[in-house]
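User: two proteins, same treatment. go.

Assistant:
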Amino acid sequence: MSKLTYSIFITYLLLGIYVLGVAIQTPYIGISVDTANGQPVIVKTYYTDWGQQQNIEKGDILLTIDRQPAEEKVTMGKPYFFRSAKELTILKPDGVVRAITVKHTDIPEELLTQIVFPLLYFVLSFFVAIYLWKRTKENRITNLLTLFLLTCSLAYTSVGASSRGNLVGLVVIDLCLVLCLVLFIHFLQHYFYYLHIKWPSFHTKWLYLLPLVISCFLLTEIDNSHFSRITSIMILGLFGILVLYATYLLIITYLRTKSAKIRLIALALIVPFLPFLLLFVVPEILHYTPIIPAEYSALFLLFIPFSFIFIQVNERLFDIEYQLSRLRYYCALAFFSASVITIGIAIFLVEQLSITLITAIFTLVFLINIMSFYVKEQLDFKHRKVIFSSNGDYVHNLYAAVNRMGKAKNQQELLARFTYEITEKLGTTAFTIETISADVPLSRGEIISKNQMTQLLLYDNADEKIVLLINHTLQKEELLWLELLALYVSMFIESLKLIEDLVLEIQHMKVTHDTPLPWLDKLLWNIIEKEKSILAQELHDTILQEQLHLARELDVLAGAPTIKRDKVRDIREQLLNATKDLREYCENLSPPLLDTFGLQIALKKLVQKVNIRANFLLNTQIERVHFQDLSLHLVVYRLVQELFNNAIKHAEATEVSLRLLAIDRGFVLQYDDNGIGCNIEDLMQSSASMGINGIRERVRAFNGDMTITSKQNEGMHISIKIQEEGEPIND
């Protein structure tokens, strides 16, 4: 920790402890008296419920304050306001003298708003600031964010001391009210630079003149031992102007850039400040009674620093949108539970609780619930990673990343896609992927983070090791995401290595004319035999059965005393139909028109056959396509053939549309029908999916893309795109 940082934290602790000590030392009572009659007569008490409980009424005479005559502390003939006291003595109109001991616990509103909440805010802000500093060290954006957090905390913590008229408390709250906004605007300026957004205003350094001017005003007031109304109005006015200025900067920048981060920061600033600004500051400046007292409207300021707790600055800002969405989720849960608990308490203690106290109880329970959710989150991450990994969009993002990387054809492309995923998800380019031969103290998939360096072993064998080095530490969610993704990458690399070795072996076999590999021979033999079996089964179930039936018909005819001409004609017609079916099988196995007249003519002939067989209206658009790989012509023909077969057997459609469109080095095949449709998952599990799976396998074999869209009674829509690798074809 540098001397400057050390000094900042020490100053924060000393000032915070001092102003909290002032508030704790003497309870705040806020009693107004009138001395027009030569005696301090009580006009009203700030805490009405407490005044009623202590039987303090308008017209009572205040005799002593902390065992000192009240008359010595006031100027006769003028109104006076007693801020704090431990003991009071009052004279009732009937001559009864009452001694009152003032305790914090007797005034719950004062205890919560001036001691409990400020103390909680002070402690949490300190630990959050330490956390931010330890995570990012000497980063300027983080430093400004930390200073903003500490000055906000001091401003709120000084509420109790300033309300008691303490000089240090008044100076601290007045300076910090302005300084915290100057620091926030300064933070915005550097944040905009980081996001490469043009700063829409003058340099923020000139705003630091405002705290200096305020300091001069405050020094002139010290000689008079009180703060004038003009100084107070000036400080509140500057506070309001800076709030509006920061809001203006954020709004115009968001309108120009549409950045989600800017929008979220704008909401985090505007929403908490508006109650304090509109309900207290504006009425106070206009000389109206504040709608809500400062200590209550300032409660909303509690949300400002903690809206930025999750903005982790470490060469990039952390995923604030995900963090704020999680905060909103926790707030919704905490609001429900806090409402139930508060209503339960109010029902049982309805006579003892005021609206103010009920509001304070709700706020306290609400904050405690939110803290509990975050504690649970940390425990889940440590002991139940599977549950924790479901937070945010990490699982969805991981699935998408694995799907994209799975399309890589070699190790170089795989690592390039892995680099892209890290850059997009983690928002950083401060990393390298190195291939080394030396041993590393890591097991595969293991992550080590130390000295702001994250190291991960992606692949390890006897010859080489692939290591990922990230030049900063990562958050827990990011580490878990990276660890899971690295496991997939490691498996992908192993698979690609095996495939590359296999390809090299086959190429070597081809060049050297060596004997084919036994396992390859076996694989090809099995594939051929499987296709033969399918064809044999198809012929057996159709044409062969028809031939056997005709043979039996001929046997019957041969044994008859007379031969009927009609019967012979029927048998002849059935033979012709069987021959026609056999010809169609042969054409399907090897379309003769495809080699003779080309793909376009063969497809048009296929369309004519479908129009004869089908009971739907068929609309087609077939463009002329050219391929360097002649086998693609057969692929297109088979795809169209299978799509038509599915439409005839399963679609139950009245209209079917098929378009074959030529693109650079490939084609797009678009199929649409208005049939019964289906659920895609159910389709993949049914026997009807054999045709679809066949189409999918053909497309995958040529590195194409295929998308299927379908719902019950909404038809089916299939889009297929295949492109050859290589240079564009010139017609």
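Protein 2:
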Amino acid sequence: MRKNNGENTIEEYENIIEKLPAAFAQHKVIYDSAGKAFDYIFVKVNKKFEEMTGLKKEDILNKKVTKVLKGIKNSKFKWIEFYGDIAMTGKEKIFEKYSEPLKRWYEVTVYSHKKGYFTTIFYDITEKKQQKEKLNYVLRFSKIGFWEYDIISKSLSWSEECENIFGLEAGEFEGEFGDFLKRVAPEDRAYVQKINSPITEMKQGIPLEYEHRIIKKNGEKRWVRESANLNDENKILGLVIDITEQKTIEKELKISREKLEHLISETTAVIYSYQIIGDNYKILYLNENVKNVIGFKAERFIGNQDFHLSCIHPEDREILKAKIKKMREIDYSIDEYRFRDKNGNYRRLYDQQKVSRRENGVITVVGSWWDITEERQEQNKEINALLFKDNLSGLHNRKFFKKTMADFDLKDNLPSSIIIADINGLKIVNDSYGFEKGDQLLKETAAILANFIRDKDVLARWGGDEFIILVPGSTKEQALNIIKSLKARFAASKKVNIPISISFGVATAEKESADFSDLLQAAEKMMDQNKLLENSSAKSKIVENILSTLGAKSYESKEHALRMSSLAHKLGKRVGLSNYDLNRLSLLARLHDIGKTTISEAILTKPGRLTESEWKIMQEHPRKGFEIASAIEEFSVIAEEILSHHEHWDGNGYPRALKGEEIPFLARIISIIDAYDVITNDRPYTKAQPPEKALAEIKRCAGSQFDPQLARDFLLMMEEN
């Protein structure tokens, strides 16, 4: 039976997961006996996952990764072992990795929400990686000059590209530091000499980077950027690159930046930048919109780490610290946290940030804050609504009912009653017709209850096949009248073509001191007592319905059962069965093929030979019949015989390949009677044969299919008749 107590809301989050801008996937790891991961299964993925990987849900869900990505075990990176460790230890990791089976680069966040399981959230960064490779290629062939200055000998040597930058011929540079200074534009010479003094004075470990103008041999002024450092051999090593075009662009950018700053000031987001230096961070810039969002002016935050931290909710400060730590390793991050505004209220901010520069151990980050407080409040309302709803029936769930009772003002609603309802025979319906029919029965029951109750009554699915109703202001007598009316409605319902039988229990609170758990216990006790009286009858009606359904969709008609009962009774008397066993035999004749109700009409009435798969389905009907009969006390006495009525004397029958006297005696009788009736009456696959041919077939199969002694007794009985 499909259980649903309403507290599992995983399906309800699917809409939220589907809208994530990142790929989302949950997996279950498969470990060997030594605890080593050797495979994992796709449990859930979202639409973005399909888009990024090209894998479709219907092709991968509940399948092993080794079947989906056949090359994964040959990958240089041991994906399965890596994820197996995450799922076992609960670690969280963020990394970039190339997937050889998918031939893509991904930025991955992986964590374990439950031991043995892991979740990945990732972005496709293939294009970014490709762009970076192209950039590296360009840099290798860029025109960057190299020079070396020996502090001891005062000699300066230039690469050929250095001379090109300064407009000199190869070997034309004189080779002294002073000669180099002559090539620096007069207005920058003092600055260049000063900036180089730390390392010329042999203070190691002080890298330099500076920009200045030079005068080429032809008199043209150009901008260059130089970087230099002192090595262990008392030599200053330096690089130089012509940045004249860059300086021109910077001038143009300055104008553009002024325009951009104007636009930024108009946006509804808070735009900011900060630098990470060691373990600290320093806010450099916030646009003026910060005042509109949280009430504080931008200058309160500039360079003031302590004030910024004080505004973050104490429970969320670790998020910020983790964010700062992350940005040392990755270039992009999205976080949410609560931020105190000027009025002391906490706003929920959506924080999106990106590294713009990494230079000399300093990381510069730009980002934006968006106030999503109202949006999250609406989402929480929707989620809370889903938490209190039963997905199958559409009613409130157990959690909602308990909360209602906890908040219920009993004092102003005395007396009040609780009614509990339990569907009789739902397991038989599930076993016989399938879970889809059982679900229809649950939905129809819920609909009848919902259409009957008053607006102020509270109805919920209590669990499995149980429902519960709170009836404020109701005496016990009134509650019993409600139950009487409901029973009439259920008896009249024809919507699911199955008789709906409900057992009810009721308890009434007449004093303010009444306890909900005591009321519930009393109502359940009454319901259980009623179920003992009503359940058997309800199950019998369902079985009658099953037999009618079976007769309507196959050749297992009532007439077939009557003919078999008559012949079985005669044979049973002939072999000396007791009255008790004769009654069991008659019941077996009627119910032996009840398991066929779970088989489709197309198979039952197929005129041609069954396929191998269809035959396997057909061979399951004794087990299904056994399950149905076992669920009903008065039918359970023949459950073993129903399970065994297609076993053969020689052990070649089904479903258990029993042999000889291992087969229950009544099952051996009914197999002969069934064979005779099938041969002598029309079937989809054959026309009726005369009794002589049927008897000859039973004689031929005595000792193989049939008990030889029972076969002889049957043949003699038929000859005498």
